[in-house]
Amino acid sequence: MTDWQATRPGETSAPLPGRHDAHLVFIGRIRTPFVSRDQCPRQGSQDGPLCRVEIEPAFQPALQGIEAFTQLDLLYWMHEARRDLLTQSPRGGASTGTFALRSPVRPNPVALSRVKLEGVKDGVLLVRGLDCLDGTPLIDIKPHRCMHPASATTSPDKKPSPPTGAGRLHLPPQPSS
Amino acid sequence: MTDWQATRPGETSAPLPGRHDAHLVFIGRIRTPFVSRDQCPRQGSQDGPLCRVEIEPAFQPALQGIEAFTQLDLLYWMHEARRDLLTQSPRGGASTGTFALRSPVRPNPVALSRVKLEGVKDGVLLVRGLDCLDGTPLIDIKPHRCMHPASATTSPDKKPSPPTGAGRLHLPPQPSS
Predict the structure, then answer these.
(1) What is the pTM of this model?
(2) Identity of the residue in B23, B143, B176 whose CB atom sits nearest the CB atom of A113
(3) Which end of chain B is least crowded, N or C, by CB within 10 Å?
(4) What is the ipTM of this complex?
């Protein structure tokens, strides 16, 4: 099994500053078929296995209207990753800065995946496209920006993403936000 | 000036749970020309103004190799946004769940922008595509996934993103990670 804590040649670390600049509240948990790091794909695929995103009851009202979208950005907390590596040598390759990698190991181990929403029921989202360990804490859900262009919110009398199916249209990719 | 704290008709709130599930350490600050919420664009544009992303000295070694990428994902903390709204009525529109919106107001106000990297010097990234207030705290930097395909890291003798210019190729968009 991969040792998440090992340091490889060429890797450098520094203790994380002791200060806590902001705090997160986990809004739910992600259930995947991946129970060890070795089982996690390098990157999720929208043809991958169906995963469950279980939202805490207190936050379930915030899902209202989510069913209008097929593409979501999920942010989650890679709770088993160390946070102190400044350079890394993935798979024994050359030393590279942490911010030039998408490794889980980073000062703030927030991961981002774009997923395909397959269904919503009783506070659970069914999605494809995840790569994370079973039990990973969830931080945020946003409509993917290509489905939520800035122009959709410019009319004061128009709901940004009506659950009429309009939100399911694949609009051209926009510069991000 | 927009009142970030006001509640509009149709909006519902609940106190954020008191627990702190994880903590963030700010890795730098973002300098933009936008000094009030009203000046911030609805969404950043890669044709927008040049912004400075100032990395704390302790984290600057983690930038090694970043110059190989032209497209980065930046994660930042919307430090002025309230965190307790479950449904919102943007611009007076219909009530919509927070997770069906990309509003700054959310339980964990982590924003995501895809930016164009124009230059790197002395621990400062020059980028276009941001929409946030001047002084916004930075949480993370990752190569955008379309420039960092999973296949790039599968060969043990190959650096994922060599600063040779190869990383600047625009590869087809991949399912996300």
Answers:
(1) 0.82
(2) B176
(3) N
(4) 0.82
